[in-house]
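Lab notebook, design round three. We kept the backbone fixed and only want residue identities now. Task for the bench partner: fill in a sequence for the structure below.
Input structure tokens:
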């Protein structure tokens, strides 16, 4: 930055900013916005304040199929990796919800968190099993363990944009029906909401947003947990407000975490997933305590 004040800007400096810093920042904004919206959607359809792609194991499921595709199928195409990520995320979400639904009380907050943690741990072990024997794969894709946007390029930005537009667009279209769904299935049906279709449409949007980011940046956790909850505290339970505010807040949080990681990790850097985990873990504990205190 001293070049701006001393007038010592060079072509190499400008090129470095344009080719590295700007695409990284733009990608961080898009990825954070996508994760914020994904968390808001998952919390809405499960009626669970601690639903989040990382807590439900969705991120790890997406990572597993991507790592399998890279290590065994020699897949390098970004669009194919997103396809694998989407498949892994969707299957994991269905599996976790199925486990949590077994027994008395259905899929409540605590059962979802426990099922997600168990599945995430098991899938994470599989990811490590695939990566560890191959030092090259381990070196190249270690960010799958923590999440990183340090290698983001303009190609990644261009690849993420269409998935973000589709997922965010679906989320905004579902906002009003999801408000009705929050009143209960019977009330929603009486208001003309097609409950099954809305849940499916919303789940598709949430998984698409999460999977596309995970395919390109690895499993970045807690963004989708924190932002929707904070938005509900600051604004209202109206998803027409929560979704766009989670989008804005998620973009800001991930970008701030990326900058903070570069500052704290000098001369290297801390991956953005580490920073969001450090911030998000206490928030998660507080939300669980508050939820338990309310008897939900």
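Proposed sequence:
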């Amino acid at each position: 930055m001293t070049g701006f004040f001393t007038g010592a800007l060079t072509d190499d400096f400008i090129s470095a900013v344009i080719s590295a810093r700007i695409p990284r920042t733009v990608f961080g904004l898009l990825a954070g916005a996508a994760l914020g919206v994904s968390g808001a959607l998952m919390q809405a359809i499960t009626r669970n304040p601690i639903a989040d792609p990382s807590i439900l194991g969705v991120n790890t499921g997406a990572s597993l199929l991507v790592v399998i595709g890279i290590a065994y199928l020699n897949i390098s195409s970004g669009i194919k990796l997103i396809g694998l990520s989407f498949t892994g995320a969707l299957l994991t979400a269905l599996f976790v919800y199925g486990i949590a639904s077994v027994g008395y009380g259905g899929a409540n907050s605590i059962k979802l968190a426990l099922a997600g943690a168990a599945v995430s741990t098991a899938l994470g072990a599989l990811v490590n099993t695939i990566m560890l024997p191959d030092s090259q794969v381990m070196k190249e894709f270690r960010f799958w363990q923590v999440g990183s946007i340090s290698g983001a390029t303009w190609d990644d930005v261009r690849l993420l944009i269409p998935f973000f537009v589709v997922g965010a667009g679906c989320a905004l279209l579902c906002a009003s029906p999801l408000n009705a769904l929050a009143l209960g299935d019977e009330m929603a049906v009486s208001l003309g909401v097609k409950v099954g279709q809305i849940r499916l449409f919303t789940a598709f949007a949430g998984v698409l947003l999460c999977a596309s980011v995970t395919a390109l940046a690895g499993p970045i956790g807690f963004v989708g947990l924190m932002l929707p909850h904070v938005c509900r505290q600051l604004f209202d339970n109206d998803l027409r407000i929560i979704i766009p505010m989670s989008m804005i807040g998620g973009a800001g949080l991930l970008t701030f975490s990326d900058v903070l990681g570069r500052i704290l990790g000098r001369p290297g850097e801390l991956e953005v997933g580490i920073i969001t985990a450090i911030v998000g873990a206490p928030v998660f504990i507080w939300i669980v305590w508050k939820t338990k205190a309310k008897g939900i």
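Keep this in mind before ordering anything: The first helix runs from residue 2 to 6.
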